[in-house]
Design a protein that fits this description.
- The protein is mostly helical.
- It has one domain (about 5-130).
- Helix content is about 70%, strand content about 0%.
- The protein has 5 helices and no strands.
- The chain has helices at about 5-10, 25-50, 55-85, 95-105, 110-130.
- Helix 1 packs across helix 2, helix 2 packs antiparallel against helix 3 and helix 4 packs antiparallel against helix 5.
């Protein structure tokens, strides 16, 4: 699947959490979202550094709007990607409880904070490995294989 087709497909399936998504569909959309976020944020900081406060605000609000507009399709394509390897879409939220606990751990000491930090990092690495895995070639409980 090409870059353009992947982005179009993800916006067409804006809130579709069922079905399957190929690796290329997921990674191209991931690249599109994060690439545009970096460009908008970088533009905001450059405008602010040059003293153009109004321009900086426009880029910042464009960044915020784009982030909100792509949040649901990003979670949807992530769920479909996990379905392609026969995993539940809920796997994508594994790191979140640890990220919330991590914010409250400095009061418990550096040892616990470090342990939860490693668990949090490990879960994100596990998710990246799952996203990278090749999808199943046969039909699974989430649907038929993706034809590329």
């Amino acid at each position: 699947m090409s870059f353009q087709t992947s982005v179009k497909t993800c916006f067409k399936k804006y809130a579709t959490f069922s079905g399957r998504a190929s690796r290329s569909e997921f990674w191209y959309f991931y690249l599109f979202v994060w690439g545009l976020c970096v460009i908008l944020l970088f533009s905001s900081f450059i405008s602010l550094k040059q003293g153009q406060r109004f321009s900086s605000d426009i880029f910042f609000w464009a960044f915020a709007g784009f982030g909100l507009a792509t949040l649901i399709p990003f979670f949807a394509v992530s769920a479909r990607r996990l379905h392609d390897i026969n995993k539940s879409g809920w796997f994508q939220i594994l790191p979140y409880p640890y990220s919330f606990l991590y914010k409250f751990l400095p009061a418990l000491g550096d040892g616990m904070s470090l342990i939860y930090g490693f668990i949090f990092l490990g879960l994100y690495i596990y998710l990246i490995v799952l996203y990278y895995r090749e999808g199943e070639k046969k039909k699974n409980k989430y649907g038929k294989p993706i034809k590329i």
